[in-house]
Amino acid sequence: MNTDSPAPAVYIQLKNRVTVPKGKGVLLRDVAYLITEPHWREPLYSLLVLQPQEGDGNLILIDLLTVIPRIQEVYPDAEIQPIGEGRTIVQIEGPATSAKPSIALFVLVWLLLFFGSALTIMNFHADVSMLEVQIRIVEMLTGRRDEHPYLFQIAYSLGIGFGMVIFFNHLFKKKWNEEPTPLEVEMFLYQKNIDQYVINEEYRKMKRRSDEAPGSREGGA
Description:
Blueprint: E1 9-14, E2 17-21, E3 26-27, H1 28-31, E4 32-35, H2 38-45, E5 48-50, E6 59-63, H3 64-74, E7 79-83, E8 87-93, H4 103-127, H5 130-142, H6 150-168, H7 182-212, H8 214-220
Parallel strand pairs: 1-7, 2-8
Antiparallel strand pairs: 1-4, 3-5, 6-8
Organism: Paenibacillus rhizoplanae
Keywords: Membrane, Transmembrane, Transmembrane helix
Protein name: Stage V sporulation protein AA
């Protein structure tokens, strides 16, 4: 490092969630975006922020209180300007397996979802007396009562399927527009809630370790 060069101004933004292979150290480039002078960027990106241990589990919380001291060890006078959220979740990923997906398991899950959805719709229709409603609608339209309005029921069933395709904005791999589907929104909210839970749990563990440290007990005595 050239000590004659002025200390850099470092703008740092931590990523929300990243995945790191098991056994690999977590570098600054893995968890953060940096804006600084070009000749400072690569040395900063190569900083080792954390070396995961076996007891750390597969989810690790890294915040600015971990990152800033590592930068200051190399550039003590660096002007660090954080941007956005001050923490990131690191998921430790094991080696990828080459096992092929089970066709039998896929068919089983598909059948469970298909018949489960069908039973749900039929039970709902039974609860609201949908058959009687359809008979009454056909009677109002045609002027005669038909106890088995199959034509209306077929059109109604096709309409349910078409409406589901429009509602979920998805047919196999085809999307009608760039708007997120309701399922994608729910998955996003679910993942966000999981991340918030992990953050709270990691901070709780950090506080407990801090309270159990010998220095903390001596300071509180």
